[in-house]
Amino acid sequence: MTEGLKKTWTEVVRPLLRRPPQIQVAALCCRDGPAGREVLLITSRDTGRWILPKGWLVPGKDAAGSALQEAWEEAGVRASAIGSAPVGIYHYDKRFDEGYPAPVEVRIFRVDVTALADRYPERRERERAWVSPAEAAERVDEPELKAILRDL
Prior knowledge:
There is one protein chain. Helix content is 29%, strand content 39%. It is of the alpha+beta class. The mean pLDDT is 91.
């Protein structure tokens, strides 16, 4: 009976209680480097783990424009071309300051980077690094994002 209750909780009740995901956008910043394609990663402000530039939708901008805005603020991405359709989606649970986790769906937009600024809003709060897609996949935590990076 205990296994039946556990299965019911896990497969039926818990999914019904889970909130719908909130939407974020991310910039998959790419360039052609000396050894081939490279991806720009940045560190998160709170834990210092490697991530793509990402954030919430910006009022007055579409999803692609919001992703490009995040790439500027968090990584100094300048003069770039961005696709209008997402190239992938990944999910994670964001832990808010109040301590509760919330499901988030991140829509990824490819950005072909032509220049990076030395001065940008969050330059003192983050590190940035150009790495191969394989190295990027090793550095990030989210399994779905790892798969997207490996497929580049």
